[in-house]
Amino acid sequence: MSSQSFEIISSLRYDPALPPVLAERGVDASHDSLNSPYYLLPYHQDRLRNAAANFDWKDALNFLQQDTEQFSRFLDTFIPDKAKPWRVRIVVDRSGDCKVEVNPAAPIQPQTLFIPFLPRTTSNPWRVYIDTESTTPSAFTTHKTTARDFYTAARLRSGIISPQDDAEVLLVNPRGEIMEGSITTPFFKRRGDNLEHNAAEWITPPLASGGNAGTTRRYALVQGFCTEQTIAATDLVEGEECLLSNGVRGFIYGRIVLKGPHS
């Protein structure tokens, strides 16, 4: 694909409720990645930097090298009303030009953005399908870009038409391993009978399986909530509980649906 035909992106939630919720819940918010109305902003900036470096976009990388406080002030200029939550989409091209798209964010409980304050109920979980075709890992699955046709195709194969659908599809590599979700990072309960004492209860696919280096994925690993483990698509069972996460919606419960909507 021509380097002229795509941009690197990252989407995150702006929510003025985040710092007060952290203070109220007694969460250690000393780390800059948490103590901000921009959810995990340093991780999003790192993600963009890593993508720019991978594609050898020197001008974009120079723009992204600004410190996080300066970057936060830059984003502030696009927020229409700082008293409301927003979905912020950062789009950077190879020349270092940055567009910021801001839209109203769907209401959520701010606690679901933070570990261990995960959703407390499994009622109305998202439907989680497994793609019926494989996706070949590439720089465009590791890094988030506007080249997303293969994600769109996977969603359509599973009958997911709208971004507002409470549904997700898991991409599978040619080895039959779960890579990631089309818009989320997936987490599953640990496999095996001989689990290590005090080991994390949840697992997520390793980057070696070809999925995206997501920001909530990094957060969950840093917090010790999960570990990496290769997950075969054939190991997932009907009705299995899982978690999904992204930088706009936080952590969401889901259930595996092996029979697609068109079966």
CA distance, first residue to last residue: 34 Å
Q: Give the CATH architecture of the largest domain.
A: Alpha-Beta Barrel
- What general outline do the C-alpha atoms trace? globular
Rg over alpha carbons: 18 Å
- Helix and strand content put the structural class at alpha/beta
**How many discrete domains?**
2
Instruction: State the low-pLDDT regions, or none.
Output: none
Give the DSSP E fraction (strand runs of 2 or more residues).
Answer: 15-25%
Share of helix among residues?
Answer: 10-25%
* CATH H-level homologous superfamily name of the largest domain: D-amino Acid Aminotransferase, subunit A, domain 2
Order of helices and strands: EHHHHEEEHHEEEEHEEE
Instruction: Output the number of helix runs.
Output: 7
Find the CATH topology of the largest domain: D-amino Acid Aminotransferase, Chain A, domain 2
Sheet having the most strands: 8 strands, mixed
Reading off the top of the CATH hierarchy, the class of the largest domain is best stated as Alpha Beta
Mean pLDDT: 90
Main sheet strand line-up:
6-5-4-11-10-7-8-9
**Total beta-strand segments:** 11
